[in-house]
Amino acid sequence: MSKVLIVYATRMGETERIAQLIGEGVRISGVEAVVMDAGKIKNEGDLQGYDALVFGSSTYHGEMLNKMKTLLFLAEKAGLEGKVGGAFGAFGWSGEAPGRIYNTMANVFKMAMVGDPLMLKNASLGGGIQMAQEYGKSIAGKLKER
Ligand SMILES: Cc1cc2nc3c(=O)[nH]c(=O)nc-3n(C[C@H](O)[C@H](O)[C@H](O)COP(=O)(O)O)c2cc1C
């Protein structure tokens, strides 16, 4: 069975909520999902053995959180080329982090990215629950195309 790893970096918990909803969308599609805090990933081996990887961080002062920067340097060595990818994050107004994560996954890791990064101001208001679950479903859908 295909397996998806969803890793989040959060300060107040909003990006974790989005990660859990993406995980639900993956599981609704019948695909296994593991959701993990970026701080739990200690070496590149922790990122191996998955068919799709989805990374997310909230934005502070125009940047992703340091835990996500560290994770991306580990991921560079994990051999993720060709794997399905996605990026997400909670934001307030400018939301730089998800796009930067997405571009690194596409351009440096050469992953097969789903349409766009998912950016949400709130995981549960304004259709957030559905949008995050749909993002998970689109990750699972891209895996099933293969
Ligand atoms: C000190 C501070 C700086 C912030 N800087 C930004 C920013 O530059 N751009 C932005 O879009 N949101 C910014 N935000 C809003 C957060 O991204 C937003 O509250 C988000 O929901 C936090 O998600 P988290 O709980 O996953 O950390 C900032 C919030 C705080 C408290």
Gyration radius, rounded: 13 Å
CATH topology descriptor: Rossmann fold
**Overall mean pLDDT:** 97
What can be said about the biggest beta sheet? Answer: 6 strands, parallel
Proportion in β-strands: 15-25%
CATH architecture: 3-Layer(aba) Sandwich
Keywords for this entry:
Flavoprotein-like_sf, electron transfer activity, Flavodoxin domain containing protein, 6-stranded parallel beta sheet, Flavodoxin/NO_synth, globular, Rossmann fold, binds flavin mononucleotide, 146 residues, alpha/beta, FMN binding, single chain
Q: Could you please describe the fold and organization of this structure?
A:
This is Flavodoxin domain containing protein. GO terms for molecular function: electron transfer activity; FMN binding. Residues 4-140 form the Flavodoxin-like domain. Pfam families: Flavodoxin_5. InterPro entries: Flavodoxin/NO_synth, Flavodoxin_CS, Flavodoxin_dom, Flavoprotein-like_sf. There is one protein chain. This protein has 146 residues and is of the alpha/beta class. The protein has one domain: 3-Layer(aba) Sandwich (Rossmann fold), CATH 3.40.50. Helices cover 37% and strands 24% of the residues. It is built from four helices and eight strands; from the N terminus they run βαββββαβαββα. The protein has helices at residues 14-28, 66-75, 96-107, 128-144; strands at residues 3-9, 32-37, 52-57, 59-60, 63-64, 84-90, 112-113, 118-120. Strands 1, 2, 3, 6, 7 and 8 form a six-stranded parallel β-sheet that branches. Strands 4-5 form a two-stranded antiparallel ribbon. α1 packs across α4. The radius of gyration is 13 Å and the shape is globular. The two termini are 13 Å apart. The relative contact order is 0.23. The mean pLDDT is 97.
